[in-house]
Amino acid sequence: MLILDFSSWRDAPSVSMQPEVMIAAWRVFKDQGDERFLVGLLPNGITLRTTTPIVIVNVVSRSWLTQSGRLYQTPGPPTQDIQLQETMRLLVQAGGVCGALSDATDEIWAAMQRAVQ
């Protein structure tokens, strides 16, 4: 049995202090209201970040603008690690997203791949 401890949960720095963030291994989850949330590892490789709802996705530059006004960059591919994906899903749910989540990563990743061809 895997037990996750979100006791070190903390808010991200303000958008004015951190207007842009690089995200490594990432996934996108969609709630029942079709809001999408980007979740990924920060460059330190140990901190997971989940965003406020995504407002704009630029598939060419692989950048994401969120409801908070922060810009996220995802230069690499989404993670295929099953355990990390499930941890990301749990993090989104722990952040207050209610109901079932679906993984919307594949459709966005496919659009990113098409954009570079």
Provide an overview of this structure:
The chain is of the alpha+beta class and 117 residues long. It is 21% helix and 26% strand. The chain has helices at residues 82-94, 105-115; strands at 20-22, 26-30, 36-41, 48-50, 54-58, 63-66, 71-73, 102-103. Strand 3 (36-41) and strand 4 (48-50) form a beta hairpin. The radius of gyration is 14 Å and the shape is globular. The termini are far apart.
Quick summary of this structure?
It is built from 2 helices and 8 strands; from the N terminus they run βββββββαβα.
Helices and strands, with pairings:
Blueprint (H helix, E strand, L loop, with lengths): L19 E3 L3 E5 L5 E6 L6 E3 L3 E5 L4 E4 L4 E3 L8 H13 L7 E2 L1 H11 L2
Parallel strand pairs: 1-7
Antiparallel strand pairs: 2-3, 2-8, 3-4, 5-6, 6-7
**What is the radius of gyration?**
14 Å
Order of helices and strands: EEEEEEEHEH
Helical coverage, percent range:
10-25%
Report the span from N to C terminus: 43 Å
Uncertain stretches of 5 or more adjacent residues: 1-8
Number of helices: 2
Molecular shape: globular
Instruction: Give the total of beta strands.
Output: 8
State the secondary-structure class.
Answer: alpha+beta
- The overall pLDDT average reads 87
The largest sheet, given as strand count, sense and whether it forms a barrel, is: 4 strands, mixed
**Strands side by side in the biggest sheet:** 1-7-6-5
Strand content: 25-35%
